[in-house]
Amino acid sequence: MTLLEGKNAIVYGGGGRIGAAVATAFAAEGATVHLAGRTVARLEEVADRIRAAGGSVSTAEVDALDERSVDEHADAVAAAGTLDVSFNLIAHGDVQGTPLVEMSVEDYERPVHTAVRTQFLTARAAARHMIKQGSGAILLFGGDGEPVREFSVGGLQVAFHALEAMRRQLAAELGPHGIRTVTLRTGGIPETLPEGYAGRRELEENIAAKTMLGRAATLADVGAVAAFVASDRARSMTASTVNVSCGALVD
Q: Cα(61)–Cα(32) distance, rounded to whole angstroms?
């Protein structure tokens, strides 16, 4: 039996590289994956690959920053069965590579506002149905950590710290209802860097050099770990972070 057989999983931002990798892994482990995002064409590209591999998938245009859009989609998924997994992987609109002293307040604030709002909306929508079921898993991506010295990341780390505070509170309130909350952390995934990014090679080497395994985590690595964490095999895991950094991050 596969890890997620019979489960329904929503992946917000399913058209992005990380979202697609997670959705593909969920489907390969037997879940019916519900891809949600603002660009349907990108979602359909991912869905076509999942269907070609024999997976079950649906797509929906959802603005993960809009309360009504999120709630209506979650209600529709739950109405067809259960809502077992929610993973929000939308982009936060962060600006990187610009020192803080040169950054506009709008660019600094954007990832914080975006991350907090979207995660609250999607976690709340999922939890309302999971409470009725007495089970479920809400996954987050990012995690807090030490300041980044080698590269300017703007407000991204602040956003991650805010999400971790939310995750801890969600774990405390939702745990009695059988709902787990877990964050996946990486030390950077080179595959997510734009092909034309000027400092790509240098950044790739920098990420790999910091790891204990001598390599960076791949998108496939993240997908495989996410599928395990979302499954009942990980039913004792909550209020925690999972390190998917090849040893770049030391807990």
A: 17
